[in-house]
Specification:
CATH architecture: 3-Layer(aba) Sandwich
Strand order of the largest sheet: 1-2-3
Shape: globular
Number of helices: 4
Number of strands: 3
Helix content: 25-40%
CATH superfamily: Thiolase/Chalcone synthase
Number of domains: 1
CATH topology: Peroxisomal Thiolase, Chain A, domain 1
Strand content: 15-25%
Structural class: alpha+beta
Amino acid sequence: MLSACEETIRAAGVSASDIAMVFPHQANIRIVQAVAKRLDVPNDRVFCNIAHYGNTSAASIGISLDEAVRNGLIKRGDLILLTSFGGGLTWGALLIRY
């Protein structure tokens, strides 16, 4: 996930400091923390709800994004980074302007 995030950020011509919130796949807390640390993004800008729901697999980003919107953690115009990995060693990242 890290390389996908770095490549996406670089291709968009932005820096990690421009990103309002990162929404990683909620596989486990160690992975979420590692992505934050390696991207040099403060923990308060990396959404994590794994303690509430566990690993919800493919649904984790959608659930996280909905929860963040409902709680006012992101607003229109914010740049957000979504990243995930899955079976078959697939991974990806998406940078969007919310």
